[in-house]
Amino acid sequence: MQITKVHEFAKAIIMEAGERIRSSFSEKWKIETKADANDLVTNIDRETELFFIEKITAFDPSHKILGEEGMGEKIHSLDGVVWIIDPIDGTMNFIRQHRNFAISIGVYINGVGKLGYIYDVMRDQLYFAEEGHGAFMNEIPLKPLEAISLDKAIIGLNATWVTPNKKIEHLPMIELVRTVRGTRSYGSAALEIVSVACGRMDAYISMRLSPWDVAGGVVIANEVGAIASNLKNEPINLLKQDTFIVANPTIHSEIINHYIQLKYDNQ
Q: Can you say how many angstroms the Cα of residue 104 is from the centroid of all Cα atoms in its chain?
């Protein structure tokens, strides 16, 4: 596979999809719920995923596609070339705020992340990376992450995890929040991952993310030296839902070892 050719193709279809999404604000959307009342999907999510599937299949029918809305294939392995796509990451923000959402795409070859893309649609900012060649935002290189101590760090964290819950012991999380300089929550895993890659945040933690939430961002984060894993400090598994952390390498292990106490096996 010619990586450069795939890269240029991916950038082109992402930008075209972004324009289609921006144009959709003049339309009346169809909004439905999925797993629960806060898990929303629109016709634009589905139409955008279908757009990517049609374009990628025409480009190379041997490439497999795993998409959030389930319009691609049922993927049981990462053998070959696999595109992992979230057509709109942050659908609640898309619906309610008309901003703070992104297109997220990772291209993997035999399980290795080769290309990663996160497109902040409303800011027209395309973050991308090719394995071993650095990460960029609109062709501007992202700098390698600098060392930081936890007390000076800003972390991305949903407020739910510092209240009593079924997934994680909340008291150590309260201690973490008191230790760090500040916390943020943007409602889009993709944008929170690139915030870490850009150094705007120093860690992002989630109890439950799917492969399409992280596949593109992990490739970008790796290129600036960030470490991504699940909350047991195990490698990311892109065939299932799992816990997730991406962090500056100087605080990644410290957060997991001192503040993370999962209540049950998230496998």
A: 6
Extract the runs of DSSP E, i.e. beta strands, from the chain. Answer: 31-33, 40-42, 64-67, 81-89, 102-109, 112-120, 125-130, 135-137, 140-141, 154-156, 182-184, 203-209, 227-229, 242-247
C-beta of residue 130 within 8 angstroms of C-beta of residue 201: no
Between helices 3-23 and 43-59, what is the axis angle to 10°? 150
Assess whether pLDDT exceeds 90 at residue 233: yes
Q: Tokens 């993310």, residue?
A: 209
Asked if residue 176 lies in contact with residue 259, where contact means CB atoms within 8 angstroms, the answer is: yes
Instruction: Determine the straight-line distance between the first and last CA of the chain, rounded to whole angstroms.
Output: 33
Question: DSSP string of 108-155?
Answer: EETTEEEEEEEEETTTTEEEEEETTS-EEETTEEPPPPPP--GGG-EE
Query: CA 74: distance to chain centroid?
Result: 20
CB-CB neighbours of 99 under 10 Å:
13
pLDDT tens for residues 66-109? 987 666 667 889 999 999 999 999 988 988 888 999 999 999 99
Over residues 127-136, mean pLDDT: 97
Contact in structure between 115 and 9 (CB atoms under 8 Å):
no
Among residues 184, 178, 179, 213, which one has the least CA distance to residue 198?
Answer: 184
Q: What is the pLDDT of residues 3-21, one digit of tens each?
A: 999 999 999 999 999 999 9
Residue 20 backbone phi and psi in degrees, to 5: -65, -40
